[in-house]
Amino acid sequence: MNQRTLPLFRLSRKINRSFTVSFMLFLLLAVFGVFMALPLVFAVSNAFKPLDELFIFPPRFFVSNPTVDNFYDLVALMGNSWVPLSRYITNTLLITIIGTAGHILFASAAAYPLAKYRFPGSNALFTIVVLSLMFSAQVTAIPNYMVMSWLGWINTQASIIIPSLAFPLGLFLMKQFMEQIPDALLEAAKIDGANEYRIYWTIVMPNVKPAWLTLMILQFPMLWGSDGGNFIYSENLKTLHYALGQIALGGIARAGVGAAVALVLMIVPITLFIISQSSVIQTMATSGMKD
Amino acid sequence: MQAETTSQPATRPAREAKTSRRMLIWREMKKNKHHYVLLSPYMILFFLFTVIPVVFSLILSFFYFNMLEFPRFVGWQNYSRLLFNDDVFMIAVKNTFLFAVITGPVSYVACFLFAWIINELSPKVRAFMTLVFYAPSISGNVYFIWLIFFSGDAYGYLNGFLIKYGFIMAPIQWLTNEKYILPIIILVQLWLSLGTSFLAFIAGLQTVDKTLIEAGAVDGIKNRWQELWFITLPSMRPQLLFGAVMQITASFAVADISIALAGLPSVNYAAHTIVTHLIDYGTIRFEMGYASAIATVLFAIMLGTNLLTQKLIRKVGE
């Protein structure tokens, strides 16, 4: 059969596909897709519910009289509070933007020599980074607190930003992606008299743009959702996520406002992912661990 | 005399070889000095906040330290107390392994299965479904939505639904009833777990060589299951290894969701994990040495399981 005559039947073009099994698998995908999407749809729906609909019995899933009152209430509430809402937003943005941009810069600078050269210690350093992917950050929580207090960074935003610059996953993915840059490109630049820093900045960096976006999509939600952890005490240094927690503690009266903040917190990382998805997938193709 | 003269030339080249090897490494290092400069900002921070803390935690686990007095060396006491005298830790270990044994493999298989089905779709639908499955893991702390869903009063969605349709008469306290806490946390954890490895699988599936599949069809591969087993899985081994590391580490680190849904401490420690135990001793009781011993045990469990799994997955393809 000529492929061009049947553009509609994409699936039939593939080899060895039975229709029944395809149907069953897509049904499975659809059912679980609904399970995955439901809470998020619910979060959106909730943010537009008037208070009487939030506490209706029996509870209704979708909003029937949508309103944006919750968002007005949010602004009004935070305008009157001791620390204005804009402060929390600025803090979150500060941590997220510096942490993400810095991480991309630091991780790629370190990934370039590890991906392209062999030198004393290069293998050992990369092995340590891979090993550190194998345990979570909670393992080091206690000594980290002591390191922070020794540095005098307790109750500063540096305590959140600086460690995030050196998360291991970003370096790992960046290094795997950089390995596919052709050596000839680097050699040519060297012959033209460029030094290593120049090569890194003008040849390597522009070639790994998809990996920047991937590091961004991994780093951004983590910092965006940070509540300051154990390191930040001052109210005027706290983040948006922390403010959400405080509002949620307000109980029934604050339920609508809480839903509005939740929507704001959720929508930003998801939008970023929608924008960067194809680049992220391209980077992830090189994420494998070599034998 | 004879022996002395013969031994002299024998040792000198050896020593020279040693020093010249050191010189060689030094020369290599000097030649690569720009590479070290590029590495240093990241590595200084990485050592300061990851490598040194691991070593420090190991050392601290042999001390009694409450942040006020000078640390006092206690030998293996923290560990013996942890393993033999701490019933709550045993509950935490049991729960952690229960979480890990269920959420680890299930989420790993789910990541692959859904990525595999999504890969059969046309590019536009594929992008949309990828978003649907990946979104929960980056939507920050929206899992508090589940709190409303499982809320213990009649306004909770599950209770409301069950009462409305007459399954139950009175609302169930989902998050304070020992029977329900663990399954609910596992459910929410699974909902959140299609993260980095899911993306890696989606990407890996797109790079599987199409000509291999066509050649396989010629060689007598009859259906998609055979294609999956003989072609797709072996060509994705690197991504499978990476995904395994991501899922295992996450499945042992369950804590945030447990605390958000069931509180700390949870009712009768029903949702207590090694990490919440660590948080309890580290940030509430300030027994830093003891908490470090817990951290060291967690570190050993995570690293050990990961290395073992890596070995197993490498065997599968051979």
Automatic annotation (TrEMBL), chain B:
Gene3D superfamilies, per the entry: MetI-like (1.10.3720.10)
Keyword field: Cell membrane, Membrane, Transmembrane, Transmembrane helix, Transport
Transmembrane segments: 36-65, 97-119, 131-149, 180-203, 240-262, 288-308
GO cellular component: plasma membrane
InterPro entries reported in the protein's UniProt record: ABC_transporter_permease (IPR051393), MetI-like (IPR000515), MetI-like_sf (IPR035906)
Membrane association type: Multi-pass membrane protein
Residue ranges constituting the ABC transmembrane type-1 domain according to the UniProt record: 93-309
Entry's localization field: Cell membrane
A biological-process GO annotation: transmembrane transport
Pfam families tied to this protein: BPD_transp_1 (PF00528)
Record PANTHER family: ABC TRANSPORTER PERMEASE PROTEIN, INNER MEMBRANE ABC TRANSPORTER PERMEASE PROTEIN YCJO
Similarity comment: family membership: Belongs to the binding-protein-dependent transport system permease family.
Name of this protein: Sugar ABC transporter permease
Organism: Cohnella fermenti
